[in-house]
Amino acid sequence: MSHFLVADRKTEYDEKMARRAVKQEATGKKLGGKPAKAPEAGPRDHDQINLTDEESRIMPVAGGGFDQAYNAQEAVDAGTMLVIATGVTQATNDNYPGVSKSHAGW
Question: What pTM was computed for the model?
Fold first, then answer.
């Protein structure tokens, strides 16, 4: 699994460096700031994994603190109170709903 993460980071790095080169060529000036560092293979210091449930994430909980959890959401028909769609996400907040309106039939 970590191989794919490194590959994703490498792809992201390559895209970032290509955009930087295009900007630098367009302006004819050296861009300020430090260029991005290439990703290194292996886990980073802040990488974590739950060996019993790799898909869950550490999320803030009510009353403070953190817990290994999921963010589950559902869409309910107000007239019949029937659940019409469900979704589970790894996002820690509800800014982006786990149940899209298209899946809920809206």
Answer: 0.41
84 contacts 101 by C-beta, under 8 angstroms: no
Query: pLDDT tens string for the chain (106 positions)?
Result: 444 566 788 888 899 899 989 999 999 888 888 877 887 777 777 777 777 887 888 888 888 888 888 888 888 889 999 998 888 877 777 776 655 655 555 5
Q: How many structural domains is the chain composed of?
A: 2
Q: Are residues 70 and 32 in the same domain?
A: no
Structure tokens of 93? 């907040």
Rounded-to-integer distance, Cα 4 and Cα 43, Å: 12
Going by the DSSP 8-state scheme, the letter that residue 10 receives in this structure is: H
Residue 65: strand, helix, or coil: coil
